[in-house]
Amino acid sequence: MKTQKFMIALTIANAGMLLFSLAQPRPTAAQDVAPVLRGHALEIVDDQGVSARRLKYSRHNPTSRCLTALQDIQRPCYSV
Predict the structure, then answer these.
(1) Which among 54, 56, 48 is positioned nearest to 71, based on CA atoms?
(2) Averaged over 45-59, what is the pLDDT?
(3) 40 Cβ partners below 8 Å, 6+ apart?
(4) pTM over 0.85
(5) Cα separation, 68 vs 75, whole angstroms
(6) In angstroms, rounded to a whole number, what is the distance separating the alpha carbons of residues 56 and 45?
(7) Which end of the chain is more exposed for a tag (fewer CB within 10 A), N or C?
(8) Which domain range does residue 77 map to?
(9) What pLDDT, on the 0 to 100 scale, is given for residue 41?
(10) Residue 48 to residue 2: CA distance in whole angstroms
(11) What is the mean pLDDT of the chain?
(12) pLDDT in tens, 33-43
């Protein structure tokens, strides 16, 4: 019986919080478009500054483009 009363009280509290969060007005204006970041490579580092992954974009010829993921020191992981 205590568990049932607790679950009913918890359900009512959750419903109240839901109604409160839905009742708050939110801005409906469109957000500005974020600027574009462009580059030829992306390096992901950990907290110590050690490179975990590196994505490199290269163009071998006008019809071929390659996105390569590198691990450690220039060891290819995969290419797209």
Answers:
(1) 54
(2) 77
(3) 56, 57, 58
(4) no
(5) 10
(6) 15
(7) N
(8) 40-80
(9) 76
(10) 51
(11) 77
(12) 667 777 777 77
- State residue 29's pLDDT score: 67
Q: CB-based contacts of 50: which residues, under 8 Å, 6+ apart?
A: none
**Within a domain: residue 35?**
no
Estimate to the nearest angstrom the gap between the alpha carbon of 74 and the chain centroid: 26
> Is residue 11 one of the residues assigned to a domain?
no
Give the number of residues written for the chain: 80
Query: Which has the closest alpha carbon to 52: 26, 71, 36, 29?
Result: 71
73 has pLDDT over 70: no
| Contact of 9 with 17, CB cutoff 8 Å | no
In sequence order, what DSSP letters do the residues of the chain get, joined into one string? -HHHHHHHHHHHHHHHHHHHHHHS----SPPPPPPPP--SEEEEE-TTS-EEEEEEEEEEETTEEEEEEEETTTEEEEE-
| Domain presence at residue 57 | yes
